[in-house]
Design brief:
Layout (H helix, E strand, L loop, with lengths): L12 E6 L9 E7 L1 H12 L8 H8 L12 H13 L1
Antiparallel strand pairs: 1-2
């Protein structure tokens, strides 16, 4: 009998964050989605020339947050590196 191989399909996740320098607040999750929604978010980002950072581990952590929730302190460094890179573009 042949063994049935399971296909493990990886879930694509996208998370959009917003940071306003003028406000004294942490960056916030402003949108998130999986699979088709994640693909649509990427399509829109590309259309408007919005930087996309591919970091699945960070996306998983950010995806656990609610929309409009500030990112937790333990993610500040990872998110700050991305924001600095984007700011310098």
């Amino acid at each position: 009998m042949k063994e049935k191989k399971e296909k493990t399909q990886k879930t694509k996740k996208a998370v959009a964050i917003k940071y306003e320098i003028e406000k004294d607040e942490a960056p916030r999750v402003i949108a998130k989605g999986q699979n088709l929604i994640a693909e649509k978010m990427e399509e829109i980002a590309n259309k408007y020339n919005i930087h996309i950072e591919r970091n699945p581990e960070l996306a998983d952590q950010l995806y656990r947050l609610s929309v409009n929730q500030e990112i937790p302190e333990e993610l500040y460094e990872a998110v700050a590196k991305i924001l600095v890179y984007v700011y310098n573009l």
